[in-house]
Automatic annotation (TrEMBL), chain A:
It comes from Phyllobacterium trifolii. CDD domains: PBP1_BMP-like. GO terms for cellular component: plasma membrane. Residues 1-22 form the signal peptide. This is Simple sugar transport system substrate-binding protein. PANTHER family: ABC TRANSPORTER SUBSTRATE-BINDING PROTEIN.
TrEMBL record, chain B:
Keywords: Cell membrane, Membrane, Sugar transport, Transmembrane, Transmembrane helix, Transport. It is a multi-pass membrane protein. GO terms for molecular function: transmembrane transporter activity. This is Simple sugar transport system permease protein. It is found in: Cell membrane. It comes from Phyllobacterium trifolii. The keyword Oxidoreductase does not apply. InterPro entries: ABC_transp_permease. Its main location: membrane. Pfam families: BPD_transp_2 (PF02653). PANTHER family: ABC TRANSPORTER PERMEASE PROTEIN (PTHR43370:SF2), SUGAR ABC TRANSPORTER INTEGRAL MEMBRANE PROTEIN-RELATED (PTHR43370).
Amino acid sequence: MKKLMMALTIAASFAVAGPALAADKLKIGFIYIGPPGDFGWTYQHDQGRKQLEKELGDKVETTFLENVPEGADAERSIERLARAGNKLIFTTSFGYMDATVKVAQKFPDVKFEHATGYKTAENVSVYNSRFYEGRYVQGVIAAKMSKTGVAGYIGSFPIPEVVQGINSFILGAQTVNPNFKIKVIWANSWFDPAKEADAAKALIDQGVDIITQHTDSTAAMQVAAERKIKAFGQASDMIKFGPETQMTSIVDNWGPYYIERAKAVLDGTWKSHNVFEGMKEGLVVMAPYTNMPDDVKKLAEETQAKITSGELKPFTGPIKRQDGSEWLKAGETADDKTILSMNFYVAGVDDKLPK
Amino acid sequence: MTMFEAILLTVATAATPLLIAALGELVVERSGVLNLGVEGMMVMGAVTGFAVAQYTGSAWLGMFAAILAGAAFSLLFGFLTLTLITNQVATGLALTLLGLGASAMIGESFVGLPGVRMDSLYIQGLTDIPYVGKVLFGQDPIFYISILLTIGVAWFLFRTRAGLTLRAVGDNHTSAHALGVPVVRIRYLAVIFGGACAGLAGAQLSLVYVPQWVENMTSGRGWIALALVVFASWRPWRILAGAYLFGAVTIGQLHAQALGIGVPSQFMSSLPYLATIIVLVLISRNKRLTLMNTPTSLGKPFVPDR
């Protein structure tokens, strides 16, 4: 499929025969880490792309390359899109960071938007979502709902985006139960349904009674449903895979951002920036709170409202690091730079962070 | 259910698709054909199995459809490599790419739908035996099929005349042809068997392992199966050992991580590959025996002279 898409992209670049024809239409390219059919991370980016097409109609033309590995292939794929005449390119995974910056140097008139990274340039923007805000709410719910006091967390790779989530989750949980524990398993993959299912089974066999994940498929939700425990969805609303299991899910809502940025290119106001948006801006949406008693639901809604209004910031001291040293003093709030490069656990996480 | 039992069950589920796909490929390679399209046939089986189970509500019908889909897909490979004599390596790779693409297209409307799960066996009394009951008498049907398949393939290859003929074709197709053995027909049958097995392995993924359809859900398991065949030096029981070892280390490393033993997870994730390669290389270290088991005509095209 990937090869076919690439062939089509190359063919398209010849077919257009010069920029004159393409001038009135803004060509926008997307690089996906997984398949749009993963029903998770890539699915949501693709939903955003579809919203963009719907909103701007004839003014834009979008292409995407799927299943692009983070590595040498990424650079080649991004360059292909740039050569094919795309003037705005979204690279939608952390691991595309260096490749994006590299290609951007070669194509100064193309605008690049890299998701979840931290390196910007004249023509490279970074956009990121404060998923960890949703994780905090999940932590609160987990601590209320768990009988064993231990939740299982399936991680993909030990990168800041995922570590933020783990820390935020435990901090949320500690507000309810200071002794709350989480067990972490790293799948070392964003997308391997069978392995994610195995990880969920291993966690449940070791006594966790809540599953949360930062990997992209719905497999873990299904295992949790089968074993009759509760779980949180990831990236999209996974309620269909666990009607009696999912308590909520962090839904990535990229559409509005994609539309805003495409419009900016169209009217010439596009500027490189580094945005980090969350519940307030509508980038992080929580799926309906289900499968929990009313009082827990109320607490979750209150927590969400406080985060949305800015009254509550998950990374506010006093917070200790895992090794016991002080990270944030009482009342001190972590700045975005620290959050975006987070590479340590806070106290209470029962795992050693792989480096 | 004890922890030990739970782990055994998980290991069996993880090993079964590898075992089935590798057994199929074993027969193909023993006949002298190298089909690198296992991943593609497997993913076609997975999507067909899911789709048919979804429409009919029957996981069994889904499983049979997956077997047929894998076989039909392998027939394409057979026609290209055996009749048109295309390059086997290139054709096999193309088959994988085609399978991944075609399955994504077929499966588009099934994304996000919970699937039909194949029920596990339950025999009153036997399944309830402590410790071993669930492992021996309470698993999904495809697990039992995979064990029977191992016995069947081992018996067929080394205890029957037809198996001997198939191995002869794989070792020296020219001599076999001179003796009047229908080389191409035998290879066709072997290729179809391999496709059917890959299809069944795919069905195990989408009906038992994770009852859902997502693109690329095989995630490289077809390639692991291919590697198992070689590292097991083309012996069925070693494939079984290799598949279970791979499954056991995969699950073991997940448990070790959950226990928080503090070994880097990247190392843990590569452990199944390392362990399987090391063990299988060790048991195949007798060079003469290994050479004897390697199908000499593997991957070589055969054009019958009239």
